[in-house]
What we know:
By secondary structure, the protein is mostly helical. It has 2 helices and no strands.
Amino acid sequence: MKMILGLFKYFLIITLIFFLSLIVFEISLGNDNVHYRLLLDKAIMMSLKFYFIVLPIHFLVFRKVNPHKK
Length: 70
């Protein structure tokens, strides 16, 4: 359960980072009318794609090793 909550926390952090970067990008382009709902949808999709790439690598590399198993 602790691992699931940790992954959810990192998912929210990555989504927030993508969302803020998209807002900065839209404002730097000179758009006065920023559509936050569309940017939030894009940020969620970007973070889901990120996790489909990162999670399998995470589970393969950071596998728990049983020290009692010989």
